[in-house]
Sequence to fold (110 residues):
Amino acid sequence: MIGQAIEAKVAGVAYRRIAVRLGVHADTVRGWLRRFCERAGVVRAHFTRWAVALDPEIGPMLPAGSGIADALEAIAVAVRAWVLRFGPGDPWRIACRLSGGGLLATRAPA
Fold:
């Protein structure tokens, strides 16, 4: 659910509209998105390292247009590298696994 909110935010959807779509309180969605935005650089770096570790020939990741879009792109590339190596799975569960469950944690690094 948090992953869907992040994807919608990157697509330009306002947090209140995301909350309605997901059936979640707007303040909850705003908190998720705020944390993701605050940690976007750390998230991008973490998942970029995973992408390279899983596929050393991955090549450069080009900017996606904003800090949060870059972070989401890094997550997507790392998840794709995981799937190519280990087989299919739910993208956000794989992302959670690669982050040690700390994708949106407030104190632990990604």
